[in-house]
């Protein structure tokens, strides 16, 4: 797929001397969903703000569909929609007018049918005449999303779009995302709900301390870095792992009723067969077996720990 957002050696240093971005390189492909993951303070919001033209980079180059965000900022920004973390809305304005105004600010012609479609998708149609101040926090978040979509952007940034909102909105949001992806819209998502990123993302990027640690297709990442855990439930509790099983690097459960064995998903030989044989030789009786695949969250936590 062609690149729609190009970030080359981008840095951001604030007046205080804090270096928020440290030579970030990132190529975002047209029509993909990229989940950008990182702990608090990693640089996610700074990177998004820099691409969207809210923050000026200290160095490097950013283009959106070939338009430089500094020298050709009008064209670049017209292609971008942003749902920020903050609920910044005009409290006394009506929902419908708020969304229409955002479309007009980008110079788009009037299209009431399109605005109505967005409001229906986000369950806001019944609230179209309500003032923003009358809405719940979740409904205000929906208005932010509608505003970001009002000018039909080709690149949509969702910065923690479902933080602190109800399950219904989260479902609505992902339904909208699926429809936008089907229309060829590129979506960059940051979220603390990593299971959602795992469900919808095509690629995953991990940022920490202002640096991109990796960007990979989600399936490749989980295959490459994922592990499986085999939990062996025992007939009787063990106080210690027998010396004969030391080479397997087993973990003992708190109550001693299970042993846990981790192995690489990419290995041609897992070692399970010999483990079970040695288990019997050590005099341990097995009751049951359970396996669990590493989640994206497991991989993310391990990556961040390594960089700490």
TrEMBL record:
<dbReference type="GO" id="GO:0005524">
    <property type="term" value="F:ATP binding"/>
</dbReference>
<protein>
    <submittedName>
        <fullName>ABC transporter ATP-binding protein</fullName>
    </submittedName>
</protein>
<keyword id="KW-0547">Nucleotide-binding</keyword>
<feature type="domain" description="ABC transporter">
    <location>
        <begin position="5"/>
        <end position="234"/>
    </location>
</feature>
<dbReference type="InterPro" id="IPR050763">
    <property type="entry name" value="ABC_transporter_ATP-binding"/>
</dbReference>
<dbReference type="Pfam" id="PF00005">
    <property type="entry name" value="ABC_tran"/>
</dbReference>
<keyword id="KW-0067">ATP-binding</keyword>
<dbReference type="InterPro" id="IPR003439">
    <property type="entry name" value="ABC_transporter-like_ATP-bd"/>
</dbReference>
<dbReference type="InterPro" id="IPR027417">
    <property type="entry name" value="P-loop_NTPase"/>
</dbReference>
<dbReference type="InterPro" id="IPR003593">
    <property type="entry name" value="AAA+_ATPase"/>
</dbReference>
<dbReference type="InterPro" id="IPR017871">
    <property type="entry name" value="ABC_transporter-like_CS"/>
</dbReference>
<keyword id="KW-0813">Transport</keyword>
